[in-house]
Design goal:
15 strands, Glutaredoxin, 5 domains, 26 helices, alpha/beta, 5-stranded mixed β-sheet, Rossmann fold
């Protein structure tokens, strides 16, 4: 696209976002969608339009893996490199597409038409292998479909003209309970919340008082908050913080002049193996938006955001259509349900490929148009969040549960699950099982029961809550899903005895190294060293001394990393060493320390390319070992 055309795109996109620098990530995303990449001309124009230094624009664009500062082709293919995709044969499919299109993995074709690379996880673990083409998901890949995709690219067929069935994403809901089995009519939970107020006049007064940071009478928002607390609802994003206490802290936080309270839905489920939020947003968006509006009513918020994972870009148009319908039904906007002062609306911001933005403070930084670097805490978002305003950040599933609590009451919800874990949990089940998909259970279900229900056989291990979670071996299958035993954000990945648990852990370590934001040295360097150690073992250069080095890295990352990514980076390695030691010992062929660098191995590829493999074999025989 010529410079004048680029300038027109930038001006048009920036105007739609009111030339607001806090919308930088969204502006960059739309510019790239129009121009295929973010060119120097686009950055020049954006710098002038937003009144920002060039380094600021480039710094934000360079942080996110889905933004390209160099041409990446008209078709940008990203294969999922999650462990489940590998188990389903993704490597052979990548090779097949690259060979068909004459392009190297990680590079752009010579004609500039297409690039093929890898990304950590596309959120399609239940229907892999999967890929993204220009951020639109295609699952259920087969050799035949790969050949068809190659032909569509060669013929330069525009993406909207590709077969619709390619882009069909199944929900695969296998077991439902109070959330997935609900038949909530939009507005029901809000009407129930409204009914908890003694009278409409007091409720309207409460709404105005919350917005202005003044005390209120009983009923209305207070009653709703009490129900959330009585329900003992805890966050479903993994940390499990008590939702009512978070909301109460935000409600009680003082407002400065011109400030407002903010509600944020964290839909950036980047943990490999997790895809429950995809299903909730695809099929139950009203339940989620209703829960956000209930939260806004309880804390006195007037503005809401959904931070949608970049891999779920294909859900954006549908979600915006649901929001528009809710506005038409007076369930969003001004004076919701005819209640004066009940003002709240939601907008969707799409991420751009940064796992660390699942951490709430990094997510807020991204919402503000910045690099997604986690903040130092305190202060916490409930008092100093989005643009330094009181902000609650909750998971998609948490808001869905809040809607049901508003509808049916806290005592009803607290009666489901266990004493310490109220309600239900949605599990994303994938891996070696007959029926991968979404399963909703009351808290307290055993790992063994889930394995039975999903048709898992000869199971060796289950990774619960993704790489940062816990690896459960066969003698632990009677443990339960719950905050008192195994807490989880939702991932439940099954591995049978044919799988090498060392390679599973190695894949997870590569994920952490790739997703480290690089802000703090302990994590940036530590995850790279851990990756190198696992690769060393993989290449047959391991020794018992490497175990001690992994322990040292874990202590460093636990004590000095800036955020949870570094704190949990060693978890999959330590878990699998403790529970599947033989998987590691077969890689340790040396009793003494062995350096990771092997000259012969490094030169092997070059010898193959030049047809000189015999020379390497000869050198090895002469020296009685490696060349």
């Amino acid at each position: 696209m010529h410079a004048q055309g680029v300038a027109g795109v930038v001006d048009r996109v920036a105007a739609r976002y009111r030339r607001d620098p806090t919308c930088m990530v969204q502006i960059l995303r739309e510019i790239q969608e129009a121009c295929d990449w973010i060119s120097p001309e686009a950055i020049d124009r954006l710098q002038a339009t937003l009144g920002l230094p060039r380094t600021k624009v480039e710094g934000v664009a360079g942080f996110y893996s889905f933004f390209y500062l160099n041409p990446r082709g008209r078709y940008r293919i990203l294969f999922s490199d999650n462990i489940t995709d590998r188990m389903l044969g993704s490597k052979a499919l990548i090779d097949r597409l690259c060979n068909s299109l004459w392009v190297e993995l990680g590079k752009v074709s010579e004609d500039g038409l297409v690039s093929v690379a890898q990304t950590a996880c596309t959120g399609l673990c239940d229907q892999g292998p999967a890929l993204l083409v220009n951020n639109y998901a295609i699952g259920g890949l087969t050799p035949q479909r790969i050949d068809e995709i190659a032909e569509l690219i060669r013929s330069r067929t525009p993406l909207p003209e590709w077969p619709a069935e390619y882009f069909r994403v199944e929900d695969n809901i296998r077991r439902t309970d109070i959330l997935l089995g609900s038949e909530l009519t939009p507005g029901d939970a809000l009407r129930a919340a409204r009914a908890r107020a003694p009278d409409e006049g007091l409720m309207a007064s409460n709404m105005r008082s919350w917005r202005e940071g003044l005390p209120t009478g009983l009923g209305g928002p207070v009653a709703v908050l009490d129900e959330i607390k009585r329900a003992n609802l805890r966050g479903r994003g993994g940390a499990g913080f008590i939702t009512g206490l978070k909301w109460e802290a935000c409600r009680n936080a003082p407002l400065k002049a011109g400030q407002q309270r903010i509600v944020v839905c964290n839909a950036d489920e980047g943990e490999p193996g997790t895809f429950k939020d995809r299903v909730l947003l695809n099929t139950y968006p009203d339940l989620v938006f209703e829960g956000m509006t209930v939260a806004a009513y309880a804390v006195g918020a007037t503005r809401g955001f959904v931070y949608l994972r970049g891999e779920y870009r294909y859900l954006l148009d549908r979600l915006n259509a649901v929001l528009a319908e809710r506005r038409r039904a007076n369930l969003l906007g001004a004076d919701i349900l005819g209640n004066p002062g009940a003002d709240f609306d939601i907008e969707i911001h799409v991420g751009a490929g940064a796992y660390v933005c699942g951490e709430e403070s990094a997510l807020i930084e991204s919402l503000e148009g910045k690099r997604g670097t986690p903040r130092n805490r305190p202060p916490f978002p409930v008092t100093n969040g989005y643009l330094d305003q009181p902000t609650i950040v909750n998971n998609v599933e948490t808001f869905a549960a809040a809607a049901m609590i508003a509808l049916k009451g806290g005592d009803w919800y607290a009666g489901i699950g266990t004493k310490h874990s109220a309600g239900t949990k949605i599990l994303s089940v994938s891996g070696d099982c007959e029926r991968p998909g979404i399963y909703e259970y009351p808290f307290g279900v055993s790992v063994r029961q889930v394995l039975h229900d999903c048709g898992a056989r000869d199971t060796q291990a289950v990774q619960v809550s993704g790489p940062s979670g816990i690896c459960v071996a066969a003698d632990e299958f009677d443990r339960i899903i719950g905050f008192e035993d195994i807490p989880t954000a939702g991932a439940f990945t099954v591995f049978d005895h044919s799988r090498d648990m060392f390679e599973v852990a190695r894949n997870y370590v590569h994920f952490f190294q790739h997703e480290s934001c690089g802000f703090c040295t302990p994590c940036r360097v530590g995850t790279s060293l851990l990756k190198n150690l696992m690769d060393k073992l993989h290449n047959g250069a391991g020794s018992p001394y490497d175990f001690a080095e992994i322990e040292n890295l874990n202590r460093l990352l636990q004590s000095m990393s800036h955020c949870g990514l570094g704190h949990t980076a060693c978890n999959p390695v330590l878990d699998t060493i403790a529970k599947f030691r033989p998987a590691y010992e077969k890689h340790m062929i040396h009793s003494e320390f062995t350096p990771a660098f092997d000259l012969d191995r490094e030169l092997a590829e070059a010898r193959q390319m030049t047809g000189r493999d015999d020379a390497g074999a000869h050198l090895a025989s002469v020296h009685g070992g490696r060349a």
